[in-house]
Amino acid sequence: NAGVTQTPKFRILKIGQSMTLQCTQDMNHNYMYWYRQDPGMGLKLIYYSVGAGITDKGEVPNGYNVSRSTTEDFPLRLELAAPSQTSVYFCASSKQENEQFFGPGTRLTVL
Amino acid sequence: KQEVTQIPAALSVPEGENLVLNCSFTDSAIYNLQWFRQDPGKGLTSLLLIQSSQREQTSGRLNASLDKSSGRSTLYIAASQPGDSATYLCAVFDSNYQLIWGAGTKLIIKP
Fold first, then answer.
1. Which tens digits make up the pLDDT trace of A7-59?
2. E strand or H helix at B17, and its extent?
3. A90 → chain B, closest CA residue
4. DSSP sequence for A7-57
5. Contacts of A104 in chain B (CB under 8 A)
């Protein structure tokens, strides 16, 4: 059981580039989430999904897109990267409203 | 709008002391509350989850309490050890199916 895995661990982007952060879970959880964490701050929800084919915006969705074609995968797409998107990104999953399990995070720098 | 506050932002205590970390939230309509630990540059580890119907949860030297009516939770750490040094985050799963986070308390245990 690998839990929640994220790739890549680190990435540097130039302004205007695009990329996809990958997230996979093998716990058959129906809920999945993307958060960002800025230095010294708590986490903020970007997008979440309550099941395959269903996604919804969180608190800070602008500049991001998601899709959920399978139960296991929940990729986060950054279009036209901006310095304000420099952050650590965490993916999480849960069985409905229960305990959330987190991936190790992706550290993204936009220069 | 749900807001979560953690006070103090930082705490330094000698090894062996018992200590309490505080978390407050503004809207009592929550499904559950989770306490997490985050080590520098690392992901998040779930410590305890308290369902809205529960008053407390215990795991080893950790005890978390929940008082929904007053919008408060505490994390009690007994007999602190240097290995307990980390940032402790609390988060409430609210009625909008979102996890709302505090900014964390940075705990340092001095040997």
1. 999 999 999 999 999 999 999 999 999 999 998 788 999 999 999 999 999 98
2. none
3. B43
4. E-SEEEE-TT--EEEEEEE-S--SEEEEEEE-TTS-EEEEEEEEETTEEEE
5. 42-43
